[in-house]
Amino acid sequence: MAKIIPENKARQGRWGWHGFRILIAALLLVFAAWGIAEIYGVLIKAPTSDEQHVPAPNTTQQAPAG
Question: pTM (2 decimals)?
Answer without folding.
Answer: 0.49
